Amino acid sequence: MLAELTEDQKEIRDLVRTVLATRPIGGTGELSLPEQARADWATLAEELGVGALLVPEDHDGLGLGFAEFCAILTECGRALSPAPVLSSGLATLAVQLSSCQTARNRWLPAFATGTIGALALAEDDDQWFATTPATRAELLNDDTWRLTGHRLFVQDAELADVIVVTAATTHGRGLFLARTDDPTVTITPMPTMDPSRGQATVHFDATTADRLDTHTPDLVDTLHDHALVALAAEQCGIAEHALDLSVTYARERHQFGRPIGSFQAVKHHCADILVDVERMRSITQHGIWAIQTTHPERTTIAAAAQAICSESAVTTTLTAIQIHGGIGFTWEHELHRYTRRAKTNETYLGQPATHRNRIADHITT
């Protein structure tokens, strides 16, 4: 099944596209990357209410759903926006999906008014959503925990007000939320190949945290499924923009007295990108439908969406560079930025092989 966009969802998508079209792509312009990301977030959160999108109405939010979130992420990928929409949206979902009323009452209204969240999930051995995390959580009293450990590749950590992190307890894995203004939290920027979005290492040294999954034991797995489909939606936007650039260039660039799009080799490249884009859209829409309907195979579908979209986004941007010829290889052209975002996304939340292994494990158990 495919989750086709409704007319209201298309209006939200088109509004975000119009707004982001006026902003420079991530890592360009006069502002530094963090300043640009904050400016874009201010526009999206304050003027369009993106921060309140996933927050229920009874917690001062808009009460919209996962499909609207993914539609916005596709536009963020298309515009290569540095705004922390993916990170903060997933952090909001972690609280929104929780059954802990204390955490919901405390943090959902904060997200609705622009609080930025991030996810801290990656281990030293490149595991994401590890069953036994290296970071440890110690219970101080009935409601308060302390986190000790570190996480790598935390996207938008420098912008975040709160961080959602998995940690090991004496009774298994848990999901926690900590404030970044806690003096026991240290954020160290990491160099990455993507100049349009920042990542960092985050250290926790007996950091006070709220537990989110006390009454929702499957919360980490549920968040995992949502995160994979959400990232796939952003990758769709990257590939769609690569297709648009390629088709436009093939029509406008002339060689031997005619558009290069009339040559069979260029036609084949454009057709290959289109096939990849349609495949990415289909599996992502299927993933959104599976999430919304809590389909019993949603874990497999979400893993398949990310395995396919992560590789296809890289393939489409590289093919687009080939279509553009010499100009496509220059720093002045924007395509290399889309390629670098796609390549970084390919490993964010796990390698494609990791997702395929998750599918195999789910099928055989």
UniProtKB/TrEMBL annotation:
Domain of life per record: Bacteria
Listed cofactors: FAD
Family annotation (InterPro entries): Acyl-CoA_Oxase/DH_mid-dom_sf, AcylCo_DH-like_C, AcylCo_DH/oxidase_C, AcylCoA_DH/ox_N, AcylCoA_DH/ox_N_sf, AcylCoA_DH/oxidase_NM_dom_sf
Domain (Acyl-CoA dehydrogenase/oxidase C-terminal) ranges: 229-363
GO MF annotation, one: flavin adenine dinucleotide binding
Domain Acyl-CoA dehydrogenase/oxidase N-terminal: 6-114
Keyword vocabulary terms for this entry: FAD, Flavoprotein, Oxidoreductase
Pfam families assigned to the protein according to its UniProt record, in alphabetical order: Acyl-CoA_dh_1 (PF00441), Acyl-CoA_dh_N (PF02771)
Keyword Phosphoprotein: no
Keyword Transmembrane set for record: no
PANTHER family: ACYL-COA DEHYDROGENASE, ACYL-COA DEHYDROGENASE FADE28
Family label: Belongs to the acyl-CoA dehydrogenase family.
Listed name of the protein: Acyl-CoA dehydrogenase
Natural source organism: Dietzia lutea
